[in-house]
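ENTRY TYPE: protein
WANTED: fold as tokens:
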Amino acid sequence: QVQLVESGGGLVQAGGSLRLSCAASGSIVSISAMGWYRQAPGKQRELVAAITSGGSTNYADSVKGRFTISRDNAKNTVYLQMNSLKPEDTAVYYCYSVIGLVPRLYWGQGTQVTASS
């Protein structure tokens, strides 16, 4: 049984910063891709940032230069450092991990991020 547990969401003023964490636990042999999606009310879920096992990263255009994704392979944890937050960043943020020799996608429970104007 694999579980992803997120932490670090909250309410900040526009221009502020938050750091999200997502730790994977359970029967884990290997983790390939990890990343973050977000979903705002009335909108589709969108990819925010992704990172491969080798450290290659990919970002949505809307967050480039403001958000940084990183991972600690020893802790099976992925992070999202969010700086210069804007009201349009307000959403529920979901982490994901692709885990196993036969890859399987797992999701975190979601954490609310609110940037107030």
